[in-house]
UniProtKB/TrEMBL annotation:
The active site is at 259 (proton acceptor). NADP(+) binds at residues 26-33, 60, 102-103, 167. Pathway: Carbohydrate degradation; pentose phosphate pathway; D-ribulose 5-phosphate from D-glucose 6-phosphate (oxidative stage): step 1/3. Belongs to the glucose-6-phosphate dehydrogenase family. Substrate binds at residues 197, 201, 235, 254, 359. NCBIfam families: zwf (TIGR00871). InterPro entries: G6P_DH, G6P_DH_AS, G6P_DH_C, G6P_DH_NAD-bd, NAD(P)-bd_dom_sf. It catalyses: D-glucose 6-phosphate + NADP(+) = 6-phospho-D-glucono-1,5-lactone + NADPH + H(+). The gene is zwf. Pfam families: G6PD_C, G6PD_N. Residues 208-507 form the Glucose-6-phosphate dehydrogenase C-terminal domain. This is Glucose-6-phosphate 1-dehydrogenase. It is an enzyme of class 1 (oxidoreductase). Keywords: Carbohydrate metabolism, Glucose metabolism, NADP, Oxidoreductase.
Length: 511
C-alpha cells in the first residue's frame, strides 16, 4: 500500500459526554471488572468523561464503598488495556459508590434513589442516569420494573434516564417479545439500549465507513457482481468456565441472532439517509425482515450443528465438550453451527450468505469474505480454470484487523499465466493499535443519546424469528451424531458439504 495513511491526522476524540451517573447492576461480576471499569478508565484518559460523573455499583455481595474502591483499584491493574496513570484512576475512584442488596428487594431501589440524589449534589450529575444491566438475563425485566416503581426511570425537568440491556435478549422469539413488552411498559424505546459488543469493535463500525465512505464499491455491491458471502467467527477456546450458561444456550443462540446478524445487516443494508440512529437501524431491520424463516426441510438441508470431542489444539490434548465443567455427559448442546441464508430483496436475490461459528475450531478468526463472480470470459489458455481465483474482498475483524482484495496478476515469464495476489490494508500500519475494551464507544454513545449502534426492539425480534425456525426443528429432532468434530478442526464434515453441494468451499479451510 502507499503512504497515503500518513496524511491522516489523529482526529479529535470527540466532545466531552454529558454529566451523568452510571449505575452498574451486577457490579461485582466479570463484565464490570473486565470491560466496564477499564472502558470508563479509557474514556477518562481520552477526556471524554464529564467532570460531573459518578458510578454506583449494585450487587448482592456484601461490600462497603471503600471495599468496592479497593477491589477495582487492584483489578484495574490486571484488566486495563494500557498502564494506569494514578491521577486519572484516583479521580475515578473518588466517584465510585456501592450498594449491596437483592435486586428483587424494593428497598434497594429507595437506597439507590438516595445514592443518586447524593451523587447529583456531590458531583453535579444533574439527574441524568445510565443504568447498565450486567446481570443474569432473568433479572432484566425485574430490575426495570423496580426502577420504574421507584420513579428512577422517569425523565423530568430535562434530565435523561437510559438503560443498557446486555445480551442474551431472550432465548427465542416468544421470550424476546415478552421481554420487549415488559420493559416497554416502563421505558420508552428511546430509553432502551440493547447492547451488542460486536458493534463496539472498530472494524465492525468500519464496514459502514468502507461501504458508504467510498464511491467505488457500492456499484458492484450486488447480485450482478457478488457470487456469495462467507462469514466466519471461529474460536479456539472451549466453553471455559461458562458451561452453566452455554449449556442452556448453544452456539446458535449465543452468536447468531446478535453478533452474526449484525455483520450480515451491515454488509447487506442499503445506504442509510444519514448515520443517525433510526435511518441506520431502519435499513438493518429491512435486511432482517428479508431473511426468510426456514422450513423444516430447509433446516435439515441448510443448517449444520456440531459439538466438539476431544482433540489436539497446538499440539496439546484438550477435552471434549461433554467433559467440560458444568456440561452434561450426554449433552446435545451445539458448540458449532453453519448455515446458508438468503436475503430476499432486489440486491441480494440468489446470493447465498454462508455463516459459521463455533468453539474449539482450528483458528481464532472473525472475518467476512465477499467473493465476486468470475470474469465472464477468460482468454488465458495456459492457466487451468480451477486456478483462476475469483476476486475476493476480505474484511478481517479479528485478529490482524484489516481489509484485503485478491485479484489475478500475470505470473512473470514468456507465457501469459495468472496467479492470485492480495492487496492488503492493515489497521495497525496506518492507525497504530487502538487499545480499547470495545465498550468505550458504546458507553459514550449511550451517554450522548446516540442509539445507532444499539439494537431496536423490532430488530431483535426479526433476528429471533429466523433463528427460532431453526431452534424448533432442532428441538424436535435431537442430534444423533454428537460429538461430531474433533477439537482443533473446522467443524463437522457436513459444514464442508454444505458449500460443496453448491460448488463452493470455505476459503479459510485452505489457508
Ligand atoms: C460473546 C459470546 O457474546 O461473544 C461468547 O457469549 C463469545 O461465547 C464472544 O466467545 C465472542 O466475542 P469476541 O469479541 O471475543 O469475538
Amino acid at each position: 500500500m502507499t503512504t497515503a495513511g500518513t496524511e491522516i491526522q489523529a482526529s479529535e476524540a470527540g466532545p466531552v459526554g454529558p454529566a451523568c451517573v452510571m449505575v452498574i447492576f451486577g457490579a461485582s461480576g466479570d463484565l464490570a471488572k473486565r470491560k466496564l471499569i477499564p472502558a470508563i478508565y479509557n474514556l477518562a484518559k481520552r477526556n471524554l468523561l464529564p467532570r460531573e460523573f459518578a458510578i454506583v455499583g449494585v450487587a448482592r455481595e456484601e461490600m462497603s464503598t471503600d471495599g468496592f474502591r479497593h477491589k477495582f483499584r487492584s483489578e484495574i491493574q490486571e484488566f486495563a488495556t494500557a498502564s494506569i496513570e494514578s491521577d486519572i484512576w484516583e479521580w475515578i475512584e473518588q466517584r465510585l459508590y456501592y450498594l449491596s442488596g437483592d435486586f428483587d428487594n424494593p428497598q434497594i431501589y429507595n437506597l439507590l434513589g438516595d445514592s443518586l440524589a447524593h451523587a447529583d449534589k456531590q458531583h453535579g450529575t444533574q439527574g441524568n442516569y445510565l443504568f447498565y444491566l450486567a446481570t443474569a438475563p432473568s433479572f432484566f425485566s425485574r430490575i426495570i420494573q423496580q426502577l420504574g416503581v421507584a420513579g428512577l426511570t422517569h425523565e423530568k425537568d430535562g434530565c435523561w434516564r437510559r438503560v443498557i440491556v446486555e445480551k442474551p435478549f431472550g432465548r427465542d422469539l416468544e421470550s424476546a417479545r415478552s421481554l420487549n413488552e415488559e420493559i416497554l411498559q416502563v421505558l420508552h424505546e428511546r430509553q432502551i439500549y440493547r447492547i451488542d459488543h460486536y458493534l463496539g469493535k472498530e472494524t465492525v463500525q468500519n464496514i459502514l465507513a468502507f461501504r458508504f465512505g467510498n464511491g467505488i464499491f457500492e456499484p458492484i455491491w450486488n447480485r450482478r457482481y457478488i457470487d456469495h458471502v462467507q462469514i466466519t467467527a471461529s474460536e479456539t477456546v472451549g466453553v471455559e468456565q461458562r458451561g452453566g450458561y452455554y449449556e442452556g444456550s448453544g452456539a446458535l443462540r449465543d452468536m447468531v441472532p446478535n453478533h452474526l446478524f449484525q455483520l450480515v445487516t451491515l454488509i447487506a443494508m442499503e445506504p442509510p439517509l444519514s448515520f443517525d440512529a433510526d435511518p441506520v437501524r431502519n435499513e438493518q431491520a429491512k435486511i432482517l425482515h428479508a431473511i426468510p424463516q426456514l422450513t423444516p426441510e430447509e433446516v435439515l438441508h441448510r443448517c449444520v450443528r456440531g459439538q466438539y470431542e476431544e482433540g489436539k489444539m497446538d499440539g496439546v490434548q484438550v477435552p471434549g465438550y461433554r467433559t467440560e465443567p458444568g456440561i452434561a455427559s450426554d449433552s446435545n448442546t451445539e458448540s458449532f453451527v453453519a448455515f446458508k441464508l438468503n436475503i430476499d430483496n432486489w440486491r441480494w436475490a440468489d446470493v447465498p450468505f454462508y455463516i459459521r461459528t463455533g468453539k474449539r475450531l482450528a483458528k481464532r478468526i472473525t472475518e467476512i469474505a465477499i467473493q465476486f463472480r468470475r470474469a465472464p470470459f477468460m482468454p488465458f489458455r495456459k492457466t487451468a480454470v480451477e486456478k483462476l481465483t475469483p476476486n475476493l474482498l476480505v474484511l478481517r475483524i479479528h485478529p490482524d484487523e484489516g481489509i484485503s482484495l485478491r485479484f489475478g496478476a500475470k505470473v512473470p515469464g514468456p507465457v501469459v499465466r495468472l496467479g492470485a495476489v492480495d492487496m492488503a490494508f492493515e489497521y495497525a500500519d496506518y492507525f497504530g493499535c487502538t487499545v480499547s475494551t470495545g465498550y468505550e464507544r458504546l458507553l459514550y454513545d449511550c451517554m450522548c443519546g446516540d442509539a445507532a449502534l444499539f439494537q431496536r426492539a423490532d430488530m431483535v425480534e426479526a433476528g429471533w424469528r429466523v433463528v427460532t425456525s431453526v431452534l424448533d426443528v432442532w428441538k424436535a429432532l435431537p442430534p444423533r451424531s454428537f460429538p461430531n468434530y474433533p477439537a482443533g478442526t473446522w467443524g463437522p464434515p457436513e459444514s464442508d458439504q454444505l458449500l460443496e453441494r453448491d460448488g463452493r468451499h470455505w476459503r479459510l479451510n485452505d489457508e
